[in-house]
Specification:
The chain contains two helices and eight strands; from the N terminus they run αβαβββββββ. It is α+β, with helices and mostly antiparallel strands. It has one domain: Sandwich (Immunoglobulin-like), CATH 2.60.40. InterPro entries: DUF1425, YcfL-like_sf.
Length: 142
């Protein structure tokens, strides 16, 4: 009988402490889009989301890269709202050299308003020819 009570007491203690464990849902970013490969046509590995709210709401359906006549990198990102409500986010691009170090060329954060399930094309152009790669960042509007 004492053994059964001991087992029940241990099981109850484990049950109570298991309920106290919490998952950290406010971790630090950057986060990848949740459905990165479902409808993706182009490369989207250079697209990061800076908070979990953006990860839930935003995805990138394609990135297009080209070099302008004067050697500067130009990017067009297709940003999609995954929700059935209008949302407002901020988006920026950091241009980097071939070794993925920042060239100091960073666009200011710009506000992007997306209707429900809407997709918008956002264009970024590097200010110098040193840029060979990039990272597009998206966060909740502040």
């Amino acid at each position: 009988m004492k053994t059964l009570l001991s087992v029940l007491a241990i099981a109850a203690a484990l049950f109570v402490t298991a309920g106290c464990a919490s998952k950290n849902t406010h971790g630090t970013g950057p986060y990848l889009p949740q459905d990165t490969t479902k409808y993706t046509i182009e490369n989207t590995e250079n697209f990061v989301l800076m908070d979990q709210a953006a990860q839930y709401s935003i995805t990138c359906t394609g990135l297009q890269e080209r070099t302008t006549a004067d050697g500067r990198l130009e990017i067009v990102a297709n940003v999609k709202n995954r929700e059935i409500r209008r949302i407002q986010v901020q988006i920026s691009c950091v241009f980097k050299d071939a070794q993925r170090f920042s060239t100091g060329d960073e666009t200011p954060w710009q506000t992007l308003i997306l209707g429900e399930n809407a997709t918008e094309a956002v264009r970024f152009t590097a200010s110098n020819a040193q840029s060979k790669t990039y990272t597009i960042r998206v966060r909740q509007s502040r």
